[in-house]
Amino acid sequence: MMTQTDERYKSDARYKMVEKTMKKLNYDRSALIETLHTAQETFGYLENETLKFVARRLKLPYSKVYGVATFYHFFRLKPKGKHTVVVCMGTACYIKGADKILAKMEEKFGIKAGETTKDNLLSLLSARCVGSCSLAPIAIYDNKPIGNLELEQSINEAKELLND
Ligand code: FES
To answer: Which residues line ligand 1 (CB under 6 A)?
Structure first.
C-alpha cells in the first residue's frame, strides 16, 4: 500500500534527483556518502525525512545513515530556523537571476546563505539544483517550491512564512 510519504517522494523533484544517484550506483550500500552529497546539494541540507528515505532505499538502518550525516563536517543537518528558504543556485536558475534573489534575501534578512536570523525564525540556504529547472528561478519555502520567482515576490513569500 502506498503511504502519503511515498506519494511525496514520487511527486517531489528533489527526491527524484536523490533516487537517480542511488540508481546510478545500483543501490549499493557503499553509495551512502555520495547519496548524502546529492541530497544535500539538492535540498540545501539534510533533514530527518531525507535521511529516512535514503536509509529505506539503501536498506540501511536509520542510525547508520544518521551517524554518517553527523560524523562528517561537510554534511549539514536541518538548520535551526523555524522556517527555511532554499534558493536554487543551479545553472538554469543562475542564468535567470537566482544570484540576485539570493543577494536580495541576504540583504533583507541580514544573513548570508547558510545562516539563521538571530531570532531563529528564518534559515537561508542555497542548493545546487532542486530538479525543476523548467521553473527557474525557483526557491523552496518550507518544502513548498515556488517557481518563476520574481525578485520582490521572493521577499514577500518569505515574509508570509514568517507571519505564519
Ligand atoms: S538549476 Fe534550479 S532547478 Fe535546476
So the answer is: 88, 90-93, 129-133, 136, 138
